[in-house]
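User: quick one - fold this with zinc ion bound?
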Amino acid sequence: MTKQYIFAVDLGGTTTKLAFLTAEGGFVEKWEIPTDISDNGKNIVKNIAKSFQNKVRDLQLSTTDFLGVGMGTPGPVVHGGIISKAVNLGWENYPLKDELEQELSMPAFVGNDANCAALGEMWKGAGNGKSNLVFVTLGTGVGGGVIVNGDIVEGTNGGAGEIGHMSVQLQNGYLCNCGKHGCLETVASATGIVKIALDTLKRYEGNSPLQSILAENGNISAKDIFDHAKEKDEIALEIVDQFANYLGYGLGTLATILNPEAFVIGGGVSKAGTILIETVTKYYNQYAFPPSREDTDILLATLGNDAGVIGAGWLVKKNML
Ligand SMILES: [Zn+2]
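Assistant: Sure. Structure tokens for the protein plus zinc ion:
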């Protein structure tokens, strides 16, 4: 019998997503297990292997039906499969590829989780058919992946594609988790937009809808801001405009350097939809070098939380087929 399936894994700090995919990237089975980060993450791969064996048995498959395993993980991946540091998992110089091959007895391929999400969108999502694209995820942080000619740009030590840490606010920027000030993440993540909102609301007197929400709940969410912007609330529109200016600047600068076919925007904030794309495009067109922006689309991601696991599967397809 020919090998026909791919085992794909998307490792998160609390949950691990697992899937059996066809060679074309379709789901055969999809499930989740909790991530056990005790003992510096030494049970993680063992638990994945155990869950794999159980599922193979349940579906009356065999290990020999699998082309290999692809896995997305937090942290930079170096030397083809070593995780140099993943603080939340307790991993340091962790030989993930070797561990997977040992536990699962099949070829293993490992990528950074944000990069895997980028590859997933390239393979089966908004970037379908494109081989030069930049994926940007706007969630509690801002992450991303840069794909050139179908491959992730990894950089010298796995640190390429850290779009969230581009400096976009050169003076008086908010402090970022990375230690710098004014990173894109501090103004374009869900928490970043809220920071902009709180500072903007301070400048206004009176009772705008956003001020009422703030007074009532003691806080405000990115969704509140976009919802009221869609209803043409003036302050909400001003907040969205500031956010879009920073993100448009970031994308415009990337376009000037990379001239990609598309930017694919994912993560929780991207649920704002059309208003986000329209306002960001307005500023993007101001900042991108004109010839390099002409054939570049700004698109919403389509795979949601499945992007990472599908992209992890793509690593197997790319290397084994
Ligand atoms: Zn930063």
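One thing worth noting: The mean pLDDT is 95.
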